[in-house]
Amino acid sequence: MYDYLAIGLHGIHVYDTCIPDNRPWLYWYALKNYGLFIDKTAVLKVNPGLAFKSPICNKAFPGKEKPWYACGPLDYIGPQGYSLWWKCHGASIGVRILDEMIIEQRVYRVMPPSRMACGYHTKLASLLLKNH
After folding, report:
1. DSSP SS3 for 4
2. 117 Cβ partners below 8 Å, 6+ apart?
């Protein structure tokens, strides 16, 4: 289970794993309760350079890094600071609470892989879980 999932122009990102899929709802079940979802797609379409200016998320650093507003490129930061940095640059932030994903005041149902209709996407999602 993950502390955060991020989606950008090239797919889903979690730490050092990237899956080229732009349908994040297939992976929400992999988030921990109160895990963060960061949708950077719209921001990066307008300003792709932010991908190189943002800090790097590393779950080993919560509470040990610089404040999120003082971080620059290649600085390590925890998931909460990472999501705040992207929120200040226009990304949409969501949080998983039990079986719901709340993104920008909208509520979505989190579906486990066993309820997904397409086996291909279930396999991709299981690869994401095996990597960590």
Report:
1. strand
2. none
Global pTM exceeds 0.85 = no
The two tokens of residue 106 are 């909208």
DSSP 8-state code for residue 117: S
- For residue range 58-115, what is the model confidence (pLDDT) as tens digits? 776 655 667 777 888 888 888 888 888 999 999 998 888 888 888 887 887 777 665 5
CB atoms near residue 73 (< 10 Å): 11
What DSSP string describes 39-102? E-HHHHHH-TTHHHHSPEE-TT-TTTS--GGG--TT-EE-HHHHHHHHHHTT-EEEEEETTEEE
What is the tally of structural domains in the chain?
1
